[in-house]
Amino acid sequence: MADLDVTRADAVLIGGGIASATLAAMLTELEPDWNIEVLEKLDGLGQESSDGWNNAGTGHSALCELNYTPQDVDGSVSPAKAISINEQFQVSRQFWAHLVETGRIGDPSTFIHAVPHMSFVHGMENVDYLRRRHEALSTHPLFDRMDFTTEHRRLSEWAPLVTEGRPVTETVAATYSPDGTDVDFGTLTTQLLDYAGSHGTTVSTGSEVIDLRRMGTDWGVMVRSTADDSIRVVRAPMVFVGAGGAALPLLQKSGIDEIRGFGGFPISGQWLRCTDPSVIARHDAKVYGKAAVGAPPMSVPHLDTRYVDGQRSLMFGPYAGWSPKFLKSGSYMDLFESIKPSNITQMMAVAPPNLDLMVYLGSQLAATRHQRFDALLEYMPDAREADWEEVTAGQRVQVIAPDASKHGVLQFGTQLISAADGSIGGMLGASPGASTATSIMLNLLGKMFPERIEQWRPTITKMVPSWGTHLAEDADAAHRSLQATAASLGLEHP
């Protein structure tokens, strides 16, 4: 490395998506004198999983996602995970509201809109489950405006496209929350990095990280320019790897013990996107259903109102697929190159317990366009196939984690990995990462800078007033937070 161009930074953030953008904006607030560099392989920001059409969940707050409220063997529904995710999303809302109120980022309508969140099921067993779910959640202050119905007439008021053409004798149920939102994380990523960039952060696109090495007490981050293949090194005491699917191989390159035993299982997807403006205008909700047996969380079907790049859209999906790539722009060798002696046992161990996932993915890969359209008809009976086009979604790399017996467990969620000395950390996994990125990055700061967290406390509580508390345990605080962030972000909360 001695013959290379070597520069110094106080922190290097790898990846130009919502995770690095959130951390860059936070560090700009907490340490305005730091020299921070963000490195992104592509020529633009937020183009992988943060992009609106690559992201399966835009505004995850567990108001409608049924996979966050599992049903126990005795029929009871546990609300704990849903409450935790909603609290984390409120942390994100508070941080965004702070940035808007202080002029750090601009008009919030460019990245967030009020969109009701709904769950929809049919069949007696599912109706009973949804009723129990509503009962379990609606007593908590973050969910107390959620309504439940089994009436077709009421459902048609909430989502007319869901009831039109549906027999009135069909047994259905739905919940409806007016507190839902839609978030364009691609646009938000750009705005966060624009703010950080205007205050000293260097944002380098077209910069591919090809290696990570220890350099004394620092890390040497080797960077290749995609424009001219030139190589340089950025030396820094702190590195964050927020590169989506590329985080696993980069952390493996670092050689830290904490990544040993971890692997990844990539899953791709597709959407159906409506092309008829008159249909788009008649639907204003995110309507989530129940996942098929074996389906990963990113493939839970939903009929979604979306705002991407300022344009209102309507989509349905996603349909799961498979590719060995770890990024949409990645290599077909990504999966195979990630298999190491330290994780091959864990990688092999996950197959037998997840045969239902393999069967599900096989059925999805074999499905024709017409069969995919049939799935839409369950949510929109009067849909016309000519009004919908297929769009390729992003790649997700689900975490394969070592368990206590050193075997592998396939996890659906996000996981922070950090070295024992706090010098390097990264985020693995997928949903609900984007929506909860603020909370995840605050946890990361606590792990990587335990000696600084107390001196940062006054600034953090300005950014996130509820930091360190549980809104679900304080109804007044929860309602104040919802109302205050709604006002700052231009969301209706009557």
UniProtKB/TrEMBL annotation:
Query: What EC designation does it have?
Result: 1.1.5.4
Query: Per its UniProt record, what Pfam families does this chain match?
Result: Mqo
The record's top EC class is: oxidoreductase
Molecular function terms from GO = L-malate dehydrogenase (quinone) activity
Pathway(s) per entry? Carbohydrate metabolism; tricarboxylic acid cycle; oxaloacetate from (S)-malate (quinone route): step 1/1
Q: Which Gene3D superfamilies match?
A: D-Amino Acid Oxidase, subunit A, domain 2, FAD/NAD(P)-binding domain
Q: Which UniProt keywords apply?
A: FAD, Flavoprotein, Oxidoreductase, Tricarboxylic acid cycle
Name the chemical reaction catalysed here: (S)-malate + a quinone = a quinol + oxaloacetate
Name the needed cofactors: FAD
- Alphabetical list of NCBIfam families matching this protein: mal_quin_oxido, PRK05257.1-1, PRK05257.2-1, PRK05257.3-1, PRK05257.3-2, PRK13339.1
Family affiliation: Belongs to the MQO family.
Q: Which HAMAP family match?
A: MQO
- Its recorded name reads Probable malate:quinone oxidoreductase
Source organism per UniProt: Brachybacterium tyrofermentans
From the UniProt record, report the name of the gene that encodes this protein: mqo
